[in-house]
Amino acid sequence: MFQRPYTVVLLVPTGIGAAIGGYAGDALPVARAIASCCDRLITHPNVLNGAMLYWPLPNAFYVEGYALDQFAAGNWGLSPVHQNKIGLILDRAIEPELQLRQLQAADAARATLGLNLTEYIVTDAPLGVELRISGAGISWGTIANPDSLLRAAEKLISQAGAQAIAVVARFPEDIENAAQENYRQGKGIDPIAGAEAVISHLIVRTFQIPCAHAPALNSYPPAPQLSPRSAAEELGYTFLPCVLVGLSRAPQFVSRGAEEQRGGEFKTQNSKLKTPRPPQSPTDIWANQVDALVIPAKACGGSAILSFSQLGVQIIAVAENQTQIQVPPEPLGMKVLRVNSYLEALGVLVAHKAGINPSALCPAISSIRSL
């Protein structure tokens, strides 16, 4: 009997201090485990990026956060690809030696991994990244020159044929010492994650193509008390390799409007850019094909989560993954299955895929009741 592919979305919102997924790719083991028990896993760079470390998952879809919101709302579908041609944007604020490290990482990805990159481009003005932490303990940020970022992306798409964009922006070194040390010790929040999301959201929203970001930072002295969850970011001079690997097979986005599917026009502030769109295909994935969503139990207020809750998706809320925000599902009218850990969530997914009610696996089961 034919059964459609069992599809799971794994979300760990960025910059909220998640106990698992709030550090350098530390949710990657969760993603690997879930990918082994489903046919398709949809997740985002915050889960799969481990700086110098990454893990190829053939059935995983690497989808930026803004695009995930659009996907969950039913506005965009995901179109699988064999490979993307990746354009690389470097912030003009990056010093020459640090820029050289990024270019060497790009060349290494081309020579050692066989990835397909276009020429790179340096922005015509420094991006001017600024970092902020809200009173609620959430990291966010701004960029002073967003137009410079968009002009660079437009050139890579129109002149070099880029199908995905990797951005390396210079991040400030004057991050609050206490916040940075807490992060390196596996406590608190990632102080740069919120600003990274702003950068990728801007490009994805404007050009409707995959994008991810890697910060340019000087290396820190070795820390004897370094947390294993933060260690991936200490291994080299650049965070770019995992981004290039993720973007190399990130799905393209298709819209329901026929014009956008076959070459819609997207306007920036400076020009009108035509970006080819693949036609709709039977292999495209839409939100109504998602079977299960796995989230931290008290991080339920995001746009994608709220959209999925309206679709009858089985939502699994993991209590063990504590976050700085406290938005449980019940006040939002959201029906979820609460579990203690990701290990327990894996058992629920296996039962759900097999068409088994998880309560049937318990020693006591209640009798059927009259309506």
Automatic annotation (TrEMBL):
InterPro entries found in the cross-reference section: DUF3326
Region Disordered: start-end pairs: 256-282
Name of this protein: DUF3326 domain-containing protein
Organism in which the protein naturally occurs: Floridaenema evergladense BLCC-F167
